[in-house]
UniProtKB/TrEMBL annotation:
Gene3D superfamilies according to UniProt: 3.40.50.2300
Organism the protein comes from: Loxia curvirostra
Reaction catalysed by this enzyme: a phosphate monoester + H2O = an alcohol + phosphate; O-phospho-L-tyrosyl-[protein] + H2O = L-tyrosyl-[protein] + phosphate
Protein name in the entry: Low molecular weight phosphotyrosine protein phosphatase
E.C. code: 3.1.3.2, 3.1.3.48
GO CC, any one term: cytoplasm
Principal cellular location given in the protein's record: cytoplasm
Length: 155
């Protein structure tokens, strides 16, 4: 079967999207589906390009036995032509991505909120940057629920 490609997007690509990317990669590995998925995360902005995820995001992932070597990058035109799914964290991401995708010929990516897959119906994954460790944990839990449901749907 054809490989599915998934990209996860947030504003700066140092908190939410690297957590979602790492969670999804672990789920895919646990299910032995690595050959079917190419997963990456990216930012709408260029603020943090080249930076590692926020240390609180890294420690949250580590608490759940997950490592990541991701470095922040910005969404490219090619992403819209390459990825099957681009999942984002909130409405401003969604607006920005839809606007960017309109400037891309042959955009094949389906752009939607990751939260649309949440069985608990939490549509928006809030940015934990100005929050506490607990907020990063909430993001992790949301990402885990959504990524599981997404994988079940498209696996």
């Amino acid at each position: 079967s054809e490989n599915s490609l998934e990209s996860l997007v947030s504003i700066g690509n140092i908190c939410r999207s690297p957590i979602a990317e790492a969670v999804f990669k672990k789920l895919v590995t646990d299910e032995q589906l690595e050959h079917k998925w190419m997963t990456d995360s990216a930012a709408v902005s260029d603020w943090n390009v080249g930076r590692f995820p926020d240390s609180r995001a890294l420690s949250c992932l580590r608490n759940h036995g997950i490592e990541t070597t991701h470095k922040a990058r910005q969404v490219t035109k090619e992403d819209f032509q390459t990825f099957d799914h681009i999942l984002c964290m909130d409405e401003s991401n969604l607006r920005d991505l839809n606007r960017k995708s309109n400037q891309v010929k042959d955009c094949k990516a389906k752009i939607e909120l990751l939260g649309t897959y949440d069985p608990q119906k939490q549509l928006i994954i809030e940015d934990p940057y100005y929050g506490s460790e607990k907020d990063f944990e909430t993001v992790y839990e949301q990402c885990l629920r959504c990524c599981k449901a997404f994988l079940e749907k498209y696996h």
